[in-house]
Amino acid sequence: MSGQFNEADWIWKDGEFIPWEDAEVHLLSLAVQFGSSVFEGIRCYATPEGPAIFRLDAHIRRLFDSCKIYRMEPGHSPEEIRVACRAAVRKNHLDECYIRPMVLRGYGAAGLNPVGSPVETYLPCWPWGEYLGEGALENGVDVCVSTWQRPRPNTFPVRAKAAGHYNNAQLIKMEAVENGYTEAIVVGPDGVVSEGGGQNVFLVRDGALVTPAMDGSALPGITRDAVITLAEDLEIEVREETVAREALYTADELFFTGTATEVTPIRSVDGITVGEGEPGPVTRELQERFMAVVRGEAPDPHGWRTVVEG
Ligand SMILES: Cc1ncc(COP(=O)(O)O)c(C=O)c1O
After folding, report:
1. pTM for this model (two decimals)
2. Which of 125, 129, 169, 246 has its CA 20 to 30 A from that of 97?
3. E strand spans, 213-281
């Protein structure tokens, strides 16, 4: 098979393992026709205790929230999915990987009413390195503010991590890359900063950490929540508030958070250098803390690691 995946051998599908290449859906399934699919992105890290999944409970909770919002019944309990995630990592003999739970509407209904289409659950996982490119975590990335916006509340329910919503994310990403940037920051319908194309965004200003308040246009990231908690543990002031676009230009430091993105420094926005143009001390400290926790090199006081074998 071709593609940019570092393919694994097995994919969990509704209680059994099927070979990677057999995980196919019909052309006319609702997932393909209308983007009727919800998903998660979870990382599993190599730790001294063996592979450990980061914030598995929070991710599976959000998966079930997404299902509920879109009226999908996966037919498995959250505990069954958590157990299956661990089994998928074990079955593929992976130390570190990205796990992509997907609940989708398959082949059946011909129109928009999904009754009649089966709901299918898949758990692929595969090794995946730095999402924003090699060296991004160390050196930071150059970004722009997108000309696209995040959706207005009560249009696409952004608390659901739904495949169809990511058409917006793809427009954002394609435009950014076409114009020579790695990623983009996006404003919401009110013109204030919402998040990145596929990650949340933080500013540092005068030693305080600032991030856009959840206003119904951004995904409440699990990494965002972890970084806020780590900052509070370090007694760094954290504010969730309205962030104007120009505050990005005048920030002392800027960084993205996300499961795939981890904690990635931002060194410029729209060609304007952020701070000194290299990752700042608060970003570095939070990034190091985060990586130490996920890799099992620091204690886990918040119970975020699930050891796969455990
Ligand atoms: C649109 C969007 N915002 C934010 C995030 C970050 O969320 P998390 O930290 O839970 O991965 C993601 C990634 O899942 C995303 O796709």
Report:
1. 0.97
2. 169
3. 238-241, 253-258, 262-269, 272-273
